[in-house]
Amino acid sequence: MTVRTPQVWLPAQFADLTDLPPGLEYARWDGRSAYPSDPAEVEFYVPPLTKDIDVVGRPLPRMTRLRAVQALSSGTDELRAELDRLPHPVTLCNAGAAPAPSTAELALTLILASLRGIPESVRAQDGGAWRPEVFRSLYGRSVLIVGHGAVGSALEELLVPFGCAVTRVAGADRDAPRGPVRSAAHLPGLVADADVVVLSVPLTPQTRRLFDAGLLARMKDGALLVNVARGAAVDTDALLKETHEGRLRAALDVTDPEPLPPGHPLRETPGVLITPHVGAFTSSLWPRLEQLVRHQLSRFAAGEELENVVPR
Question: Which GO terms describe its cellular component (predicted)?
Answer without folding.
Answer: cytosol
